[in-house]
Amino acid sequence: MQTDLVAALDIGGTKIAGGLVDGRGTILVRAQRPTPAQEDGDTVMRAVEEVIGELAASPLWGRARAIGIGSAGPVDASAGTVSPVNVPGWRGFPLVERVRAAAGDLPVTLIGDGVAITAAEHWQGAARGHDNALCMVVSTGVGGGLVLDGRLRPGPTGNAGHIGHISVDLDGDPCPCGSRGCVERLASGPNIARRALENGWRPGPDGDDSAVAVAAAARAGDPVAVASFERAAQALAAAIASAASLMEIDIAVIGGGVGTAGEVLFGPLRKILDEYATLSFVRRLTVVPARMGTDAGLVGAAAAVLAGGAAAAGV
Amino acid sequence: MQTDLVAALDIGGTKIAGGLVDGRGTILVRAQRPTPAQEDGDTVMRAVEEVIGELAASPLWGRARAIGIGSAGPVDASAGTVSPVNVPGWRGFPLVERVRAAAGDLPVTLIGDGVAITAAEHWQGAARGHDNALCMVVSTGVGGGLVLDGRLRPGPTGNAGHIGHISVDLDGDPCPCGSRGCVERLASGPNIARRALENGWRPGPDGDDSAVAVAAAARAGDPVAVASFERAAQALAAAIASAASLMEIDIAVIGGGVGTAGEVLFGPLRKILDEYATLSFVRRLTVVPARMGTDAGLVGAAAAVLAGGAAAAGV
């Protein structure tokens, strides 16, 4: 497939991005629409079809041999369906079938967005050269994906690596997912901000009370802001150490908005990780920021096709 | 390798068992020695050599094509060494090299004992037919192993599936491993007994204050004994749900002494698991008792060789 292309789709709650991607991961053609996330399912699908139509209008379309989709989850790669939390019109929506129909019967591979980003980081980013890696997206939610024994490992339904909803505090706060003490409840951007506000941190004159503002306050030495990032780092450290004990990963890559907070996050994270990652075979574990930026979803959806490492929805 | 045999070794802190195992998992010849666990490393190795010597004296030895070792951990399959917690004379002990020398240069495969038991349960036990499984041993310690995408997945050093030392309580009690709130600290037999005693349970006239006695008291309705098993079940449930969210396993198999406690454990475990396993793709998760009994270590060490699914120490 050296000189052929992959049509990649990155479907999220805010935008639907598409691209024609070559064997080196270069995006040669791009298309994008806002996600009409609150509309009915067919309306959302129409936006996907417009993105595909724009790609298909390119003279390069004839070289596309397959389609890779990374979608907000949960997805069900074995059934070819998606049920993104933030797109209520899609529940068990037959995305693989509809995309194939819209794209002239090209084969379609579906994975979750966390898995797509992992494929990108392993191919060309911070996990390159690592045979056993956990890649995470820490932003509004917390997601992830796995590379095991050198290959992307999406799992039977394309959701493996879902580290945001593992419990690191079995008696802890209820999580919207129904469980308790989930990593997302302790470490997501909104929860970093909520905890800082609850403990007395106040935003500056611009009124920005997001995790980005908490990170800025932490860098300036505000102890409540520092403590909120330290608690997030503790939750991430416990979860990453668990993943390493279970799967012998040797690197954790952290992307997403919180992942760009820099030393405010990674300083305490590296320190606390040593406290939880105690077994001999996990002591080499490292944790680093993601490198692939905003194109990771598209590049990763293409990578999953090129690597043949995706789940059963290659139809 | 249909008509050939595997020489299997199961090395623990109490005994060293050996067997010649055929392609159906039948143990045709057996040998066993107590582990001189407090002696120096060469003395322990001598017991292993005696087991091998007894197997080699069998007329069937000529059909043995390879050796599989399941050893108490930590092991390092990539280096061929073992450092069992309960055998202080072996620290980084070159077990693969020494066994190969003792066994006439047959190829040797080394895995951890939790991985060996997993291989056995997947081959012929409770995980048979499941492509994604976590098998656990819950007794004095808590260990385990993984089957992913239909294959044993020992990890680079042969320790993957080490669920006993994942933290489900990030602010919890210190664990001897150095971390906090580990599953083992909450769910092992000695900790089930300790918690019952701390909360006022008292042993009967025979003085037995083990987890077996706590299980008997729980079956008789003692509320403190019931509560201690429920707390163990909660820790196991949180950990199993985490493993499912991370790896899309669909079954957890529990063996070891605590695993034989029956409904005292499995009743609350199944109920509480529903509270932690909330994501759509983990809802089919089931949890069952192990089936392979005391030969699991030997059969599993043979299975790892036959499946070719073991780590890098096939030398």
From TrEMBL, chains A, B:
This is ROK family protein. InterPro entries: ATPase_NBD, ROK, ROK_cs. It comes from the Bacteria. Belongs to the ROK (NagC/XylR) family. Gene3D superfamilies: 3.30.420.40. PROSITE patterns: ROK (PS01125). SUPFAM superfamilies: Actin-like ATPase domain (SSF53067).
